[in-house]
Amino acid sequence: MSETNTPAPEAAEGHRYTAAMAADIEARWQDVWDAEGTYEAPNPTGDLAGDPAVVARPKKFIMDMFPYPSGAGLHVGHPLGYIATDVFARHQRMSGHNVLHTLGFDAFGLPAEQYAVQTGTHPRVSTEANIENMKVQLRRLGLGHDKRRSFATIDPEYYKWTQWIFLQIYNSWYDADAKKARPVSELVAAFENGTREVPGGRAWAGLTAAERADVLNGFRLAYASDAPVNWCPGLGTVLANEEVTADGRSERGNFPVFKSRLSQWNMRITAYADRLLDDLDALDWPEAIKLQQRNWIGRSEGARVDFALGDEAITVFTTRPDTLFGATYMVLAPEHPLVEKFIPAAWPEGTHDVWTGGYATPAEAVAAYRKQAASKSDVERQAEAKDKTGVFTGEYAVNPVSGDKVPVFIADYVLMGYGTGAIMAVPAHDTRDFEFARAFELPIRCVVEPTDGRGTDTAEWEDAFVSYDAKLVNSAGEGISLDGLGVVEAKAAITDWLAGRGIGEGTVNFRLRDWLFSRQRYWGEPFPIVYDEDGVAHSLPESMLPLELPEVEDYSPRTFEPDDATSKPETPLSRNEAWVNVELDLGDGVKSYRRETNTMPNWAGSCWYELRYLDPNNASALVDPEIEQYWMGPREGAPHGGVDLYVGGAEHAVLHLLYARFWSKVLFDLGHVSSAEPFHKLFNQGMIQAYAYTDARGVYVPAAEVEERDGGYFYQGEPVKREHGKMGKSLKNAVTPDEICEEYGADTLRLYEMAMGPLDVSRPWDTRAVVGQYRLLQRLWRNIVDEETGQVTVVDGEPDEATLRALHKAIDGAGSDMAGLRFNTAIAKITELNNALTKAGRPLERSVAERLVLLVAPLAPHIAEELWHRLGHTDSVVHQDFPVADPAYVVDETVTCVVQVKGKVKARLEVAPSISEADLEQLAVTDAGVVAALGGAEIRKVIVRAPKLVNIVI
Q: In angstroms, rounded to a whole number, what is the distance separating the alpha carbons of residues 569 and 592?
């Protein structure tokens, strides 16, 4: 090691461990670690290749969820996960692993753009300043990151590969037979040679370029579509379903969200629905997160059924095809594309007044209702309101089993986002359909025999009868009878009947919708797509990547009044005509093109960042295959590969995690990576909470300025109300790590955050309690360093047996706790050991002192490094072996065995843990207290549970 490793000069308070000494120690060792590349993890090949002996060790890839560099900086809740992964990484490194642990920054997205709009500062300027500030704060915590591997998603050399991945997805299609993605070029070849029929039946050679593009658009995994989207006028952008709250508002900003029909880019994530579900089983994730993903994907089995309507067919998906005879009307989503095709000019004769909504023609009624439905969110439309709304389209479809004509309605409780956007309504056996039928005076036909005592005459029913365990009735028609069958048998019979006539088939449906990938923002990755004069999309060649985000004078999206559902988006990039309209040679001569002016969502950069950590300087490939295989490839216990440990908040259960899994599977299918899953083991840390205070107006006041007295809380002399909440700027209760580091040091902060409770449980912050960990470090320091002279006080010689037992129990317990992410209990065991050594009141033996320092090194690395060097070592504590417990000292010397007679304790024996049952029984029955308790009675049975229990039955 270099000359910078000399002990610190005498502190202001002699040689006592204080905040000032901690600050000096911590800053010095952070400089040394950076200068000497202490935390650099070697790759097996490439520009980051290193010591082959280190590469030969078992590897461990540890990751935190991407931080977003906020202008407010960190509060003490943010580093909880970062400190935890750092402790784990240090322990794994000391346990013989080649550890990759680094951190980048997820820096595109709406928060930076909104801040830029508010302040007039370019988002790149503010974002880069935020990153630098966050780097300073994180460095102060002593996090052992390989800084060579860090990056930000706004770096052009990074988002070049985000754009490249988009093009891989765009130029791929999902082969349902092969159950994998394949290049679109293979699909085109199949169309050309006739091995695959072109949709519509025409020859590929006879299609125009625009027609071919339309065909391929129906297959591509990234495609543009004109479809209903979540439009948020208040933000001026569209949102993915996952970005809309249960209240139908934007997750960011809490603005109303409306349905609007726009042309947008989508990712065909639904093609992977089955694999996304099935592969969850092999992941080491919390069951709660798996359940959320399973529910979001929402797999359900049923049947597709076609209802004839003139020359058209309305296709529905139903999980209850057995009730088809009970379908007395149909409902389409207001946005259903078929609606406009069959609306008659006038209401059919005999149309009920209640069906028309009071409008003179079907066209007027449908237009008015569509406008009304567009003002509601999906959540509002599906709310269990008793008052059902809808309007008759003026047309009738034909029930395929009964031949009955059934009226076709549109209603907002049916969504285009689920199934086919059309339902067959069976009001007798579905609650919503029943309520709608009653409101619109529609027939209700019982086809599942009630088992609750009511008859099959629905006239007197007050609600629907819903059952999956009953017999079918009133369900016989030409060539088919379901009467008397149970639900399961009836489903199978009707599905076979439909398939045999070509009007339906068994199928699977998913709740999952394709991922809306366009955003009407400036601060995001530009799409590497241009459009020719005919509007046909073309992908840019790799040689033109990265397509850099241009400078614009006005980078704010056009926003509207939050409730203006009729507004349409305007993108900031569309205002830069010089960038939008370009002359390019894409291989067939120079032509005029228009660039895509939407940008990618902020999720794009975080869908693949784990791969860039592996090979951050590779300019010619996404990642070197050998490097990717080494760090992330499939292995025992992880058949799909992935990161060894991924730590972050549970709030990303669907959005980020689902999207990243989808991208990984596409890249895997195309042969770019060996890992089909990005993250093998996931751990969700809890949240650090803090007290917040509100005044009489309900306004939050600065928590740091609140006084507690006489059992109450006061701000500027006025009483305030205390509540528990998430720590943050909005509640004015944030505590920064800088404050704690100034008062106690970073090692104390690290210990306190890890000692507060189990890592996966939310816990309250209490600044007053931090001092407990500070005192632990002071006692540790005094056990090794004389506070008066600064000299090391350890002695040579062998420790006594009691010390060895305490030491090895702590090593065994704390080591297994760190490996299991149980840092609070590891600290408890170290504290117990340190206290025992302090109470002994004598100098520590060198072997004890060194193992104590190694034991604490993952948790408090700065003081450990300082003490390690004061003990005479010249190499870093970071790369030492974690101490190994001697089993002989871990096992208790004796254990207490309870002896019961007639169920009552009559003796306690101190015995060896390894005592045999026979010997323990002999000791028990000859014990004086037991003999007295027996009083000469005959022993009927002796039950022995060595070494802790003997039960004597008389």
A: 25
Query: At which of 464, 494, 510 does a domain end?
Result: 510
> Tokens 């802790």 correspond to what residue?
948
Q: What angle do CA 190, 194, 195 make, to 5 degrees?
A: 60
Closest by CA to 41, choosing from 147, 150, 143, 146, is 146
* Tokens of residue 253, six digits: 């900003």
Given 510, 545, 576, the domain boundary residue is 510
- Give me the phi and psi of 123, to 5 degrees please: -60, -30
Residue 429: inside a domain? yes
User: Whose CA is closest to 746, among 754, 737, 736?
Assistant: 737
* CA pair distance 399, 326, nearest whole angstrom: 9
Q: Are residues 350 and 287 part of one domain?
A: no
Q: Which of 481, 131, 507, 150 is nearest to 302 (CA)?
A: 507
- Spatial separation of the C-alpha atoms in residues 418 and 61, rounded to whole Å: 39
User: What distance in Å separates the CA atoms of residue 138 and residue 686, rounded to the nearest whole number?
Assistant: 19
DSSP H/E element including 849: helix 846-856
Structural domain count of the chain = 3
Distance CA 370, CA 368 (A): 5
Residue 618 lies inside a defined structural domain of this protein: no
Residue 794 is predicted with a pLDDT of 96
Residue with tokens 């639904």: 270
Same domain, residue pair 569 and 496: no
Q: What pairing do the DSSP bridges indicate for beta strands 329-332 and 422-425?
A: antiparallel
Pair type for strands 329-332 and 405-410: parallel
Residues 278 and 312 reside in one and the same domain: no
* Locus of tokens 């490249």: 164
Bridge partner list, 237 = 232
Residue 540 lies in a domain: yes
* Residue 358 belongs to domain spanning: 299-510
pLDDT tens profile 252-268: 889 999 888 888 999 99
pLDDT band per the 50, 70, 90 thresholds, residue 9:
very low
The residues, ordered by sequence, that sit 6+ positions from 55 with a Cβ below 8 Å of its Cβ are 42, 43, 44, 49, 98, 630
Q: How many CB atoms lie within 10 A of CB 42?
A: 18
Band of pLDDT at residue 446, cut at 50, 70 and 90: very high
Record the pTM.
0.85
Tens digit of each residue's pLDDT (9 = 90 or more) over 709-736: 888 999 998 999 998 777 777 777 788 8
Q: Are residues 537 and 568 in the same domain?
A: yes
CATH of residue 455: 3.90.740.10
Q: In this predicted structure, which of 122-126, 197-201, 382-386, 889-893 has the lowest mean pLDDT? A: 382-386
12 pLDDT more than 70: no
Residues 522, 487 share a domain: no
Do 469 and 527 sit in the same domain of this protein? Answer: no
- Same-domain status, 358 and 384: yes
Question: Is 659 contained in some domain?
Answer: no
| Token pair listed for 247 | 């209240």
Cβ atoms of 9 and 580 within 8 Å: the answer is no
Which residues face 905 on adjacent strands? 900
Q: What's the pLDDT band for 10 if we cut at 50, 70, 90?
A: very low
Minimal CA–CA distance to 854: which of 865, 845, 846?
865
Residues 466 and 358 in one domain: yes
Q: Measured at the alpha carbon of residue 24, what is the angle toward residues 20 and 25, in degrees to the nearest 5?
A: 115
- Tell me the CA distances in angstroms from 730 to 380, 692, 741, one per residue in order: 28, 10, 23
- By DSSP bridging, strand 59-64 and strand 645-648 are parallel
Residues in the chain: 954
